[in-house]
Amino acid sequence: MRQSQLFGKSKKEKPADEIAKNAILLEQGGFVYKTMAGVYDYLPLGFRVLEKINTIIREEMDAIGGQELFLSALQPRERWEKTGRWEKLKEIMYQFRDNSGRDIGLATTHEEALAEIATQSIQSYKDLPLFVYQIQTKFRDEPRAKSGLMRGREFLMKDLYSFHASKEDLDAFYMRAGKAYETIFSRMNLPALATEAGGGTFTDDITHEYQVLSEAGEDIIFYCKKCHFSQNKEIANLAEGDSCPKCTGAIATGKSIEVGNIFRLGTTFAEAFGLMYSDEKGRKYPVWMGSYGIGPGRLMATAVEVHADERGIAWPKTLSPFQTHLVAISGNDPGIEKQAETFYTTLTERGIDVLFDDRKEKTPGEKFADADLIGIPLRIVISAKTLTEDSVELKKRNEKSAILIPKKDIDTIIASC
């Protein structure tokens, strides 16, 4: 991709109306555009990061047997009244009456929808267990939409729903889903702690949130540095300095960002919608359900909050919009420009995803500042200086020094990308 043609330009000045680091850097770097508080448009750079996140999520959900689907955001009032959540969620659900006079809600979540739809597919124990998931837009009338992509009014959510014949089977899958979540966050270089928490409007049981320690977080957790046991402050019976109930470690406290959550829903939703299955003897029982959520946009924001420095974003390799950032410092010298073009072609032909800074109007300082702001893990520079030694300059985003590598050592250069 040629940077001269990239839709969404970086800016020298930080957005004046933003406080959160992720909002400042993502807007300044040309990843997102703010439509209004809590509502962001993903521009090409941001969309590429989002797709990297979604791909990792899909791979791990598929690995535990998930089938992907896509549900409607428009939900009829009567569906939500079966569980009593039309009133319970009134403060955050966008509710309105359409032209036919029917009351409609924009889905904040999809437990009701899946419980209803599943009645068409689940009749027998032979139909269980079943796991379905989606990556879909959710809407919540968030009164505190001030943390960039971490707290939105319109946002993407990966929500997985599981259906089981017994509590024991639900418990077993709950553990599998938790392990899949740990793998997802590890692949994104986000050290998330499985944190005991309350169930909110979903369940009275203890649930688990996945929390990443960060001063930008809105939650406070108590956690053990030794075994990583963790509890949300809202349910905790711990205090800083206490002994860990799981090991001999000391309990610490910190602010954190919730990046995922998992819930054992029990049979509440199944009973509300008549979602029953027949066992081997024809006896009918309600289906046990679980619900498992991850916010891709929030993960993107968290990666910025955790990995950014004073110069800009520093993407983990697995989330970067491009593998490498090729910067041409030509001084409008046709010879240098031609060499840079040739090297760009070579990299792309070898399967490397490259953002090529071919902009002629930008100074070297402006190009380097943009490269640091955008945060691609590897920067390759071609200039009069590097070509004197028939080399290119390689610099990793999280390192201070650069190295020269001969252009002919293309395999070494590609291995660095």
TrEMBL record:
The Aminoacyl-transfer RNA synthetases class-II family profile domain, residue ranges: 38-316
Catalysed reactions listed for this entry: tRNA(Pro) + L-proline + ATP = L-prolyl-tRNA(Pro) + AMP + diphosphate
* Cellular component terms (Gene Ontology): cytosol
What one GO molecular function would you report for this record?
ATP binding
Gene3D superfamilies, per the entry: Anticodon-binding domain, Bira Bifunctional Protein, Domain 2
Q: Which SUPFAM superfamilies match?
A: Class II aaRS ABD-related, Class II aaRS and biotin synthetases
Any idea which UniProt keywords this protein has? Aminoacyl-tRNA synthetase, ATP-binding, Ligase, Nucleotide-binding, Protein biosynthesis
InterPro entries named among the record's database cross-references: aa-tRNA-synt_IIb, aa-tRNA-synth_II, aa-tRNA-synth_II/BPL/LPL, Anticodon-bd, Anticodon-bd_dom_sf, Pro-tRNA-ligase_IIa, Pro-tRNA_synthetase, ProRS_anticodon_short
Q: Which CDD domains match?
A: ProRS_anticodon_short
Please cite one Gene Ontology biological process associated with this protein. Answer: prolyl-tRNA aminoacylation
The UniProt record lists the EC number as 6.1.1.15
Q: What is this protein called?
A: Proline--tRNA ligase
Please report the organism this UniProt entry assigns to the protein. Candidatus Niyogibacteria bacterium CG10_big_fil_rev_8_21_14_0_10_46_36
Q: What is the lineage of its organism?
A: Bacteria, Candidatus Niyogiibacteriota
